[in-house]
# Entry
Amino acid sequence: MNEFTPAKKRVEVSVGESVRIIRELQELSQNQLAALTNIPQATISAIENGRVNLGVDRATVLARALKCHPAVLVFPGWEISEELAA
# Structure
């Protein structure tokens, strides 16, 4: 079971910044993401600006809408080698 390499922190990115970056890369507005997730736009804005914690449930819903793994949102800035990436 020791066939993994621990990830290294690469850059300082907050959870909210990771949500915003992935949302913007997919060319979604906060309103569009709100419509996809049923999370109010004001809450998405608060998450992106660090005023509200993401939480497991919201991370799962947002990750589904953004087509990424929840860990991408919850643990931003971690790097793994390309060989280990799925």
About this structure: Residues 28 and 59 are 17 Å apart (CA to CA). The chain is about 50% helix and 5% strand. The chain has a mean pLDDT of 86.
